[in-house]
Every structure is written in structure tokens, then in C-alpha cells.
């Protein structure tokens, strides 16, 4: 118990709050109904292109970022966010991190809606993965300009994580790859705009360093 308390105390505050909000929203909805049911999720804030555009329900671009289809979807996303989001917040600062996370998440949701409208292949979409890919994109940008000197994770490992995440998306069914790719690109660009050639500072280790 003491180790868990120490772990949580060492986490970046805003990222931990975002993780907690996702977990709380999930369990509230899970009590109310079936979080793996697309219709139930659509009626509780998931993104669905026709409702977003035709009904003017643009708030769904935001609310869908806090919804997840089942416990495994939540666990996978929050595990990534707990570590990667924590690292970015400590490197970029609280407000830059918030801009990257939410602007990247909203932009990836909008890109997904646009793609669905163009292809007329409509699907109910939810999850924090678009925002998480924005976090990965910003971290990759920092790795590029710092020549792999990001503390706690090597550039090679970060590139591998990003590549594997993209590959998993394209090789799995029911994954919103448009949101993932858009989130990554937006995160990289936002990192460039907000951090420029900023040299990163040392933070406590989150990963074992490559030898």
C-alpha cells in the first residue's frame, strides 16, 4: 500500500487527474449499462459522425475522449497514458501538456468524423487513444530535436513504441486508425510549435534505460 501511495505521489498531477477521470467515467457508465454496446455508448457521448455534423453535437468530439469500450480498452489506454503522459507533462510542463493532449485528442476526433463522412462508413468511436497518440507524437518530436537524450527512455525505444502502436492499430479490428495517425501528427506538430528546440530536463526514471 505504501509503495502504491509513493508511486501515485510521484506522478504528474494533471496527467493523473486525466487518468482518474477516465476510470471514474468508465465505472459510472459500466454500472449504468453495457460499455461494449455501441448504441449505449453513442447515447452517452461517443462520437458518431452523422450526429456530430447533422445534429450539431460537436461536444462529442470531446466527450468521446473519456469513454472506452470495455475494461480491456480502458486498461490498455490508461496504462500507456499513466507512463507516457506523465513523462510528457514533466518534460513539457503542465499547460503545454494539456494543450497537446486535448488539442491532439479533439483534432483526431475531428479527423475521424471527416473520414467517416467522406467514406460514408459510419462507426461509433470512443477512447483516449487519439490524445495518447498526440502525446507519443510530441515525445517523438522531443527525441528528434534532442538526439535521443530524453531521460528515462531512449529514442530507439520511443520510436519502437510508436511504431508498434501504429502497427497494432492497423492489424486489429475495430481500431480507429485515422484518429491514431491524426493524433500522432498533431502531437508532433504541436510539440514543434509549443516547445521549439527546447532542451529537455532530467526527470525521475520511468523506464529502464537501454544499455
TrEMBL record:
What Gene Ontology molecular function terms does this protein carry? Answer: serine-type endopeptidase activity
Q: Which GO terms describe its biological process?
A: proteolysis
Specify the Peptidase S54 rhomboid domain's residue ranges.
56-195
Q: Which of UniProt's keywords are assigned here? A: Hydrolase, Membrane, Protease, Transmembrane, Transmembrane helix
Q: List the membrane topology term(s).
A: Multi-pass membrane protein
User: Which superkingdom, per the lineage?
Assistant: Bacteria
The entry's localization annotation reads: Membrane
| Keyword Signal attached | no
Which Gene3D superfamilies does the record associate with it?
Rhomboid-like
Q: Which chain regions cross the lipid bilayer?
A: 12-32, 58-85, 97-115, 121-145, 157-172, 178-196
* InterPro entries on file: Peptidase_S54_rhomboid_dom, Rhomboid-like_sf, Rhomboid_protease_S54
Tell me which Pfam families the record gives: Rhomboid (PF01694)
One Gene Ontology cellular component term attached to this UniProt record is: membrane
Q: Which family does it belong to?
A: Belongs to the peptidase S54 family.
For this entry, the protein name equals Rhomboid family intramembrane serine protease
Amino acid at each position: 500500500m505504501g509503495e502504491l501511495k509513493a508511486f501515485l505521489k510521484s506522478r504528474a498531477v494533471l496527467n493523473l487527474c486525466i487518468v482518474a477521470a477516465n476510470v471514474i467515467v468508465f465505472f459510472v457508465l459500466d454500472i449504468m449499462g453495457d460499455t461494449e454496446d455501441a448504441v449505449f455508448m453513442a447515447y452517452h457521448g461517443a462520437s458518431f459522425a452523422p450526429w456530430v455534423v447533422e445534429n450539431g453535437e460537436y461536444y462529442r468530439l470531446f466527450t468521446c475522449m473519456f469513454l472506452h469500450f470495455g475494461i480491456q480498452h480502458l486498461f490498455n489506454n490508461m496504462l500507456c497514458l499513466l507512463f507516457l503522459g506523465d513523462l510528457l507533462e514533466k518534460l513539457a510542463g503542465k499547460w503545454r501538456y494539456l494543450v497537446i493532449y486535448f488539442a491532439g485528442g479533439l483534432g483526431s476526433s475531428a479527423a475521424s468524423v471527416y473520414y467517416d463522412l467522406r467514406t460514408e462508413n459510419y462507426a461509433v468511436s470512443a477512447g483516449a487513444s487519439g490524445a495518447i497518440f498526440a502525446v507519443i507524437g510530441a515525445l517523438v518530436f522531443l527525441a528528434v530535436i534532442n538526439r535521443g537524450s530524453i531521460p528515462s527512455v531512449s529514442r530507439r525505444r520511443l520510436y519502437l513504441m510508436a511504431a508498434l502502436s501504429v502497427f497494432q492499430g492497423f492489424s486489429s479490428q475495430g481500431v480507429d486508425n485515422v484518429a491514431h495517425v491524426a493524433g500522432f501528427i498533431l502531437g508532433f506538430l504541436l510539440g514543434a510549435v509549443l516547445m521549439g528546440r527546447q532542451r529537455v530536463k532530467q526527470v525521475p526514471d520511468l523506464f529502464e534505460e537501454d544499455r
